[in-house]
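Aim 2, interim progress: modelling of the flavin mononucleotide-bound target.
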Amino acid sequence: MAGSVYGTLFKVSTFGESHGAAVGAVVDGCPAGLMLEREYIQAFLDRRRPGQSRFTTARKEADRVEILSGVFEGKTLGTPIALIIQNEDQRSSDYSELKDIYRPGHADFCFDEKYGFRDYRGGGRSSGRETAGRVAAGAVAMKILSGLGIGINAFARSVGPFTVPQEITDTEEARRNPLGIPDPHIYAEAAKYIEELKEAGDSAGGIIECRIEGLPVGLGETVFDKMDAELSKAIMSIGAVKGFEIGDGFRAAVSKGSENNDPFTMEKGKTVKKSNHSGGTLGGMSDGDTIVFRAAVKPTPSISLPQKTVTSKGEEREIVIKGRHDPLIVPRAIVVVEAMAAITVADMLLRNMSSGYEDVKEHYSRNKGKE
Ligand SMILES: Cc1cc2nc3c(=O)[nH]c(=O)nc-3n(C[C@H](O)[C@H](O)[C@H](O)COP(=O)(O)O)c2cc1C
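Predicted structure of the complex, ligand included:
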């Protein structure tokens, strides 16, 4: 069974089930000599942690990350970095009733059909908890990128029917409220809506927008490993993400060429675009502009309203899911989106270093100089 490893040079594998002993990640290919502290990684995990607001599950996890290897005296060694987060609040009894019944909107049915059995405790490997490993690994990638002046910020562009106008991108405001919305008025309306849904035992979806700033031109490899193709795979691999678009995305399909093309101009001796319908990539390579992409997140599948389903024996049943669930996945997935974007960009950046012979020559002549 494959599928738990992502990346070519900056390679991340995640491990662990929701109610097993631990979850985590192994990062292979991180350059040696990067200053990396446990607290830096912890700050990212703290943004994903459940139980922090009335909009997230009451599951109380400290989500304390430990660095098991790959770092010595505060610096990366260039060896695999193993990051582990113990599972502490594992109330598996919440899930024993779900052993033989398929929760609508979850992976239970497909796991049973595929393997004949599954870890039924909280979705096992398909749980949102798996993303803790991604966030830990993403923090390592972010440390590489921030040292190069590259910034990655995501926020909620919409929650249920409430959408923040395109020109509002205030990530600081988004960090101030528990829904991650960059506008205080829209936050107030959306919060009321989510409270009502929670009260009714229902859930909502939303759209996460992510902006990657400070990239040079040319990151991304033609043809299959285009920057937008890689980002799309990384983001679509997050549970509950059902759509990905870059730049104008689906809107580009209904605009005219004269509207959708971004004219080039010269600014301080540099070729730049006058607009950014492309979303920061052309031909699968970063075009020097901000990369702007959006991920559509479905409503939390675990709802406490009665739903029709079947058991593993083929009996039709009604299911009422108890346990502890978020009425909205978006707020906790924001940092997961940032993490997957960071992992992708770090990988593309390292790959780009060997794409031109002149770069290879420069690297080796520098090394020779050291002899
Ligand atoms: C950060 C995060 C938290 C999640 N929390 C929950 C949750 O509390 N309850 C739930 O039913 N689904 C949750 N999910 C979504 C499920 O894991 C996901 O919908 C399910 O595995 C089915 O996969 P699919 O939606 O990609 O098809 C979460 C996902 C993420 C990324």
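The longest strand covers residues 151-159. The chain has a mean pLDDT of 94.
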